[in-house]
TrEMBL record:
Record's keyword annotation contains Cell membrane: yes
InterPro entries on file: AlkB/XylM, FA_desaturase_dom
PANTHER family: ALKANE 1-MONOOXYGENASE 1
UniProt superkingdom: Bacteria
Organism: Tabrizicola soli
Record's keyword terms, sorted: Cell inner membrane, Cell membrane, Iron, Membrane, Metal-binding, Monooxygenase, Oxidoreductase, Transmembrane, Transmembrane helix
Topology versus the membrane: Multi-pass membrane protein
Main localization (coarse): membrane
Similarity field: Belongs to the fatty acid desaturase type 1 family. AlkB subfamily.
Transmembrane stretches, start-end: 67-90, 102-119, 131-149, 208-237
Residue ranges constituting the Fatty acid desaturase domain according to the UniProt record: 99-307
UniProt name for this protein: Alkane 1-monooxygenase
Location of this chain's protein in the cell: Cell inner membrane
Length: 356
């Protein structure tokens, strides 16, 4: 009899998410082995470690996680420090050689997209205002502030439908999806926030004013750090991270659609409307973001408690999420590999598109 998987302790999440930070800090100042350690951790080691343990369970329902928010704040503050530090080390007159600067760019970008983004995503779902603001600040620094509004007000409401710009259609390649998702989330998030203010549900400055001015301030900081090269590096790191955010959205909802009810409304969001992965270490590093079905079913559930639904209840990818995102960069190969997995859910639900 196979023993039941045990919950991953919070220390496991902390180790997986925070270990790259000192490697990046040392690499930015000293280069050499520290840079390679940070890069190989993000690009290779995490995938290898996934093979050691297939999955872990979620923590007990109703358990309290006072240290979980501390971890999220640590990652969020770390992201706000990594961006200017990496910009200085890559674009400034520091000691790093040309190839070391490239390695730092890749390693920092991977950490921002695969660790800082999941932490910011958790923070914008927290009810405490100061936590939400920190998560939004991370997205603003990544020049992607609209995500703090569009993800909560548009994506969670319209996921797996044509009304959600961040749900990829079956057969749609990533390079067609990405600009549609970026522009659509900006516009629809703006529209949703403006509607809340029109109805009097929200007061104060429009958040999009803060998103735009905050991003402009980040770019001014980049200029102050290292002039035009600093500006270009900050832009590059932001685009690197944004591409990973969009890849995650693309992979985690690819081809899955919700049915229309007789009254024209969409069916309720269910476990079948998101792809999941069971790989333990990348899930820990990404704060259980790959347990995406449970997050959509329970948006306020803390990340240590997210559950992995059985394979007959929710679609599951055979690859770790970072690997699936890498495969999606080759659209033809991605469509060929995902087709049999998507076909299972298309056959089980008449609402599913058949364009893959």
């Amino acid at each position: 009899m196979t023993p039941s998987p045990k919950p991953l302790p919070l220390a496991g999440f902390a180790l997986a998410t925070l270990l790259p930070l000192p490697l990046l800090l040392l690499g930015a100042g000293l280069g050499g082995v520290w840079l390679w350690a940070a890069f190989l951790y993000m690009a290779v080691l995490t995938i290898l470690l996934d093979q050691l343990v297939p999955l872990t369970s979620g923590a007990a329902e109703g358990a309290e996680f006072p240290a979980a928010d501390i971890l999220l704040v640590t990652v969020g503050v770390g992201a706000l420090g990594v961006l200017p530090l990496a910009t200085w080390a890559i674009a400034g007159p520091g000691p790093l050689g040309a190839w070391e600067r490239v390695i730092l760019f890749l390693a920092a970008g991977f950490w921002l997209g695969q660790v800082a983004h999941p932490a910011a995503h958790e923070l914008i779902h927290r009810p405490r205002r100061e936590l939400f603001r920190l998560g939004a600040a991370v997205y603003v620094a990544l020049l992607f502030g609209q995500h703090a509004s569009a993800h909560r007000l548009v994506h969670h409401r319209h996921v797996a439908s044509d009304e959600d710009p961040n749900s990829a259609r079956a057969g749609e390649g990533f390079y067609r999806f990405a600009p549609r998702a970026w522009a659509g989330s900006f516009v629809q998030g703006l529209r949703a926030e403006s509607e809340l203010r029109r109805r009097g549900s929200r007061l104060g400055l429009h958040p999009y004013f803060l998103y735009v001015t905050g991003s402009l301030a980040a770019l001014v900081l980049a200029l102050a750090i290292a002039g035009l090269p600093g500006l270009l590096v900050w832009l590059g790191l932001a685009l690197h991270a944004q591409s990973q955010i969009l890849l995650s959205d693309y992979v985690q909802h690819y081809g899955l659609t919700r049915a229309r009810l007789p009254d024209g409304r969409l069916e309720p969001v269910g476990l079948r409307h998101s792809w999941n992965t069971a790989h333990w270490f990348t899930s820990a590093m990404m704060l259980n973001a790959p347990r995406h079905s449970d997050h959509h079913a329970h948006p306020l559930r803390p990340f240590p408690a997210l559950r992995l639904p059985p394979e007959d209840e929710a679609p599951r990818l055979p690859w770790p999420l970072p690997v699936a995102c890498a495969l999606a960069l080759a659209p033809r190969r991605w469509r060929r590999l995902i087709r049999p997995h998507l076909a299972r859910w298309q056959a089980a639900s008449p609402a599913q598109d058949t364009g893959a």
